[in-house]
Amino acid sequence: MNINLTNSIMTSVPIICLFILSISASYAQSNQDASIAQPGDPARWYQEDMTPHGYFLTLKKEAMNVYQDSSKKCMSEEKSNRKQCMIEAKNTFKQDMDAAKEKSGSY
Predict the structure, then answer these.
(1) Closest Cα partner for 82 from 70, 94, 92?
(2) What are the angstrom distances between the C-alpha of 9 and each of 4, 6, 15, 27, 102?
(3) Nearest in space to 89 (alpha carbons), one of 100, 78, 81
(4) Which of 7, 17, 67, 87 has its CA 20 to 30 A from that of 1?
(5) Between helices 52-75 and 79-104, what is the axis angle to 10°?
(6) Chain-centre distance of CA 71, in angstroms?
(7) Which residues contact 56 (CB under 8 A, 6 or more apart)?
(8) How many other C-beta atoms are found inside a 10 Å radius of the C-beta of residue 64?
(9) 3-class SS at 72?
(10) What is the pTM of this model?
């Protein structure tokens, strides 16, 4: 009987720990979201801009980040390949920006 009790405890402890860990993680995430807002801040500061212009700005930000990452990768290329890599990165950025304008209908 003692062995069965020990086995039961040994299987229950990890399950309980995982449960507590998941609750702690979700609590920490909700507190982190709430900690951004400060007393007196207007609610509009924390609402996503769903206008065509706001959508364009989001797509532009994503395109800029991709271009920045591509540029960093190009700089780590051999010198002989670097120029072509940067040309490709710029072309991709231009395509992304054209697509952003078309998708958002903003411009």
Answers:
(1) 70
(2) 9, 5, 10, 27, 60
(3) 81
(4) 17
(5) 170
(6) 20
(7) 100, 101, 103, 104, 106, 107
(8) 13
(9) helix
(10) 0.56
Measured distance between the N- and C-terminal CA atoms of the chain, rounded to whole angstroms: 76
Is the separation of the CB atoms in 52 and 106 below 8 Å? yes
With beta carbons less than 8 A apart as the criterion, state whether 85 and 72 touch: no
pLDDT attached to residue 49: 76
Label residue 23 exposed, middle or buried (CB < 10 Å: 0-12, 13-18, 19+). Answer: exposed
Condensed to tens digits (0 to 9), the pLDDT of residues 61-75 reads: 999 999 999 999 999
Could you tell me the two tokens for 94? 């231009």
Convert the pLDDT of each residue in 35-64 to its tens digit. Answer: 678 888 888 777 777 889 989 999 999 999
What is the C-alpha to C-alpha distance for residues 58 and 64, in angstroms, rounded to an integer?
A: 10
Structure letter (DSSP) for residue 105:
-
